Amino acid sequence: MNEIQKDELMKALHDCMEACNRCFDECLKEDDVKMMEACIRIDRECADVCSFTEQAVSRDSPFLDEYLKTCVVVCKACADECGQHDHDHCQHCADMCKKCADVCERFIA
Amino acid sequence: MNEIQKDELMKALHDCMEACNRCFDECLKEDDVKMMEACIRIDRECADVCSFTEQAVSRDSPFLDEYLKTCVVVCKACADECGQHDHDHCQHCADMCKKCADVCERFIA
Amino acid sequence: MNEIQKDELMKALHDCMEACNRCFDECLKEDDVKMMEACIRIDRECADVCSFTEQAVSRDSPFLDEYLKTCVVVCKACADECGQHDHDHCQHCADMCKKCADVCERFIA
Amino acid sequence: MNEIQKDELMKALHDCMEACNRCFDECLKEDDVKMMEACIRIDRECADVCSFTEQAVSRDSPFLDEYLKTCVVVCKACADECGQHDHDHCQHCADMCKKCADVCERFIA
């Protein structure tokens, strides 16, 4: 993976983490917070996995394939959950998660 | 700090992280989840800070004092918030946070 | 997974993280530090993966199987590397990594 | 802090983390790795602190001031250590650490 590819991958992971944390924050402010329970849980999970993987990319981890595979699983699950809700932050988060999963899949060796 | 002291400190941090994550999980299952918003947020924050600090202790970080001071601030804030709710998981979490803050304070050089 | 099993799993992950961080620390103090390059790298990697997974166990993550599978891969690689060096800290680290990999494997659903 | 400011802060933290992890990686490849011992240790520490803080910014943590203060301390220490070595990766890391410390200081409330 060259530097441009690493930057692309880290940007996708960062943007996904940011969207997940925003969605987590906004979901907790919603009136129908009970309906957002699953969304809040998976937002946190996905943000943590993306943050971990972002740092792993920056240190050229030899286990990047393992981390990326996990990232794809969690990002897709988060996109599925968030995609069911009409809130803008959920729809944006679903988009970022799908994009991140796509980019991660492309970089799995 | 000797090995016994390190173990005591890591145990307090671990137990606090565990109590915070359990409280996070249980708060999201409550019917009155809207009332638990602040609790859910600070539970996540405190779990992350304790987890970070637990690993910093295990690697004898030269910045342990800084991390412990932050840990005390976050644990006390979490204890204050959780202590306001009657749920068993909140009361248990408040106890673990207070204990963790005490242990951390004792080990600040 | 019941509470006793969770504690067993978190203990194995914690002990492995601790052994990896100690090995990282001690390897950097060795005179033959150049020979320890691979060991230093994988110690850090394994400590980070175990720390992440320890917290995931405490929050009953639905993605625990994915994390545990990754943990097994990294712990086994760390055990292989550390097992090649005669230093006590390397041998101890290899033992803890093997044990952690065994415990993780047992809990993969 | 508005979105533009958050992006500026997260970028500084990300760039610093990346420079620290690159420096960690390159230091371990150097022939004079024994001389790089302190640099390797603080690179890891600083990368972890920046990564943690980057995520804290993205979730609008109420404890951001505490994290930023710690970040300033660790970034300055890393800049001091790396600045003593002539390797390009050390000089680049020192620059990124100084810049990150400056940006963090500006955002402490």
TrEMBL record, chains A, B, C, D:
It holds the Pfam family Csp. PANTHER family: CYTOPLASMIC PROTEIN, CYTOPLASMIC PROTEIN-RELATED. This is Four-helix bundle copper-binding protein. It comes from Alkalicoccus luteus. The lineage of its organism: Bacteria, Bacillati, Bacillota, Bacilli, Bacillales.
